[in-house]
Amino acid sequence: ATADHAAQIARPNNPDFIAIQRDAEAPRHDIRVAEAARLPTVSGVASGDYVNTLAGETGGAPRSGTATSVGVQGRIPLYQGGLPAARIAQSVALEAQTLEQRVAVERSVIATTRSTFASYRAAQDAITSNQIAVRANELALEGARAENSVGTRTILEVLNAEQELLNAQVQLVTARRDSYVAGFQLLNAMGQAEADDL
C-alpha cells in the first residue's frame, strides 16, 4: 500500500539482501578457524598393508602377509612467527568489510524498492489520466463527426480528431505496459518475483 510497507517486505525477502547476510556469516567462522591455529592438536594415524609375492626368491620370508600400524600424534605450537595473529586480524577485517557491504546492500534494496514503488504509482496515475484523455477524445471525435454531418467541420478536422483519439489510445496502452513492468520490478525488489510467488 505504501513505499514503507514495500520496504518492510523487501528487507527480509530480497535475494541480494539474503545473500549478503549469508556472506556476513562466513567471516565469523573464518575467525574461529584462525584462532584454532594457535591451539594444540592431537591426531590419530592408522595404516594397513597387504603383501603377496607371486614369483621370485623371497629369501626365506613368507610369500604373503599383512602389516598394520596405529599411532597418536600431538602438536603444540610454540612459535609461529605471528601467522595466526595475522590471519585473525585479516578475518576480523573481512568481517567488518562484509558488515559494511551488508549495510550498503540493505540501503540499496530499500532505495530500489522505494524507487520502483514510485514508478509503479506514477504508471497507475498515467493510466488514469490516459483513460480520461481517451474518453475526452472519443467525445471530441463524436462532436467533430456531428458537426461534419451538418457542415460546420471539414473531413480533415474529423481525421485530426481520429488521430488524436488514436494517439490517446496508444498512450493508454503504453501506460498499461509501463504499469506491468513497474509492478514486476517492484515485486522483484521486494523479493516476491519468485516462481512460487507468481
Characterization of the model:
The structure is a single chain. The protein is α+β, with helices and mostly antiparallel strands and 198 residues long. 69% of the residues lie in helices and 12% in strands. The chain contains four helices and two strands. The protein has a two-stranded antiparallel ribbon with strand order 1-2. Helix 1 crosses helix 3, helix 2 runs antiparallel to helix 3 and helix 3 runs antiparallel to helix 4. The mean pLDDT is 87.
How is the topology of this model organized?
Layout: H1 3-13, H2 15-36, E1 41-52, E2 64-75, H3 83-150, H4 155-189
Antiparallel strand pairs: 1-2
Helix pairs in contact: 1-3, 2-3, 3-4
A few lines on this structure:
Helix content is 69%, strand content 12%. It is built from 4 helices and 2 strands.
Shape from CA axes?
elongated
Radius of gyration in whole Å, from Cα? 38 Å
> If strands are numbered along the chain, what order do they take across the biggest sheet?
1-2
Derived from helix and strand composition plus strand pairing, the structural class reads alpha+beta
Unreliable residue stretches: none
The average pLDDT is 87
**In angstroms, what separates the terminal alpha carbons?**
19 Å
Strand content: 5-15%
Main beta-sheet annotation: 2 strands, antiparallel
Number of helices: 4
